[in-house]
Write a structure and sequence with these properties.
This protein has helices at about 20-30, 50-60, 90, 100-110, 125-135, 165-175, 190-205, 235-250, 265-275, 310-320, 340-345, 375-385, 395-400, 405-410, and strands at about 1-5, 10-15, 35-40, 60-65, 75-80, 110-115, 140, 145-150, 160, 180-185, 205-210, 215-220, 230, 250-255, 275-280, 285-290, 300, 325-330, 350, 355-360, 365, 370, 385-390, 390-395, 415-420. The chain is α/β, with parallel strands linked by helices. The chain folds into 2 domains: about 1-20 and about 235-420, Enolpyruvate transferase domain (UDP-n-acetylglucosamine1-carboxyvinyl-transferase, Chain); about 20-230, Alpha-beta prism (UDP-n-acetylglucosamine1-carboxyvinyl-transferase, Chain), CATH 3.65.10.10. The chain has a 4-stranded mixed sheet with strand order 22-24-1-25. Strands 2-14-16-15 form a 4-stranded mixed sheet. Strands 4-5-3-13 form a 4-stranded mixed sheet. A hairpin with a 2-residue loop joins strand 15 (about 275-280) and strand 16 (about 285-290). Helix 1 packs parallel to helix 2 and helix 5 (about 125-135) packs parallel to helix 6 (about 165-175). Bound molecules: uridine-diphosphate-2(N-acetylglucosaminyl) butyric acid.
Length: about 425
Amino acid sequence: MDRIVVHRSGPLAGEVDVPGAKNSVLKLMVASLYAEGTHELTNVPAISDVDTMGSLLGALGVDVSHDLHRADVLLLTNRGDVKSIAPSELVETIRASINLLGPLLACKGHVRLDMPGGDDFGTRPIDMHIAGLTAMGAEFDLSHGNIEARADNLHGAHITLDFPSVGATENILTAAVHANGETIIENAAREPEVADLCDLLVEMGAQISGIGSSTLTIVGVERGSLKPVQHAVVPDRIQAATYLAATAVAGGDVIVRGARAHDMQVLLSRMNDMGLDITAVPGGVRIVSEGRMRAVDIQTLPYPGLATDYKPLLVTMLAVAEGSGIVTENLYPGRFRYVEELSKLGADIRTDGHHAIVRGVERLRGAAVVAPDIRAGAALVVAGLAAEGRTVISGIEHIDRGYDNLVGRLVALGAVVERVDMAVS
Ligand code: EPU
């Protein structure tokens, strides 16, 4: 029953730290399947998807717990008896459960799981995952409504992806860790979170080269040869962008600690184009926002292009900027569903297929809105900072999946926002 209630705020001031990335930590957690013993992840965000993945791994033979004295530290103890059948009710909750495919095939030669859940942006096929793993010798059976795959002897392969899919790249490279011989992935995804997974696997004993580039080469090593390690999760560039966007619409002067400018280059340069003063500072990124932003056109692309996950934030910024901007979504055609909610706040947005035209208005006005997914939910909170009156956001369990204390962090910057239980208020 919780809601987030936002009032027009600003200027924001101070510093905010960015926790580890959801889209990295969930995959790093899965890597605990490779090695018996206790793995330690630091800079872990307090988000519900981490809890869900923890339960999923628990059912597969890895005990997951938080360190009692360090809230951002997760301990994952692989008991040495990993199961290969994942429980449906947990798999259906998060998209990252698809990332069990590669490691379980590598370690057990078998995997069975339901079709994974996650945000609903329309169809989210896994054909490239299946094609890549099949080229390595896996055999799939999708006839019972779930995904079952077997591979007694995975072998290396030369795979060129049609599109640099994050999930397909991760599943192929994680399967290749124990395959016989060399696997080359061309047109691989280059997202910092993919590189973080590669870095962890290398620290554990895997052989991967080309990390961060579009050609990854993996040389298989013996099963049982990987070792548990301690690893810090890469900072979350999408959460970092959320605090930049909040300052952009509310005005102010904020340093986002932990944000890595080089991982966010295209976003930062588009924000500069909008008239915001963005600079890389030691250990973070500083934003100074004064006056009204200017509209720009944007299009989403795989990394290093502008991430689709930034888009709801950018659409919100354009909604209050001067002029009109054309937004083109190249990854998920269905990812404009939140536009209706922004319109309830007075935003002037027209969509046509995978394009949107956003005509900036001087003022948004508060209303009751519903968060349709993680990033759009956060964007509605940001929009509320620029809206007269009270904006009440429901559906915030979506926000909890990927944001670590969004409300508390915004309050610390001076925003007027609170989380309330409407049943008792
Ligand atoms: N695609 C296919 N076939 C495939 C795989 C992907 O057609 O076999 C298509 C997808 O339908 C989509 C595009 O390729 O149109 C990109 O999909 P990708 O595989 O790159 O995305 P993902 O691995 O499913 C991850 C993040 C998303 C993020 C995308 C793009 C996780 C758990 N999810 O999804 O994050 O939007 O990459 O960067 O890592 C979020 O965090 O809110 C979120 C949705």
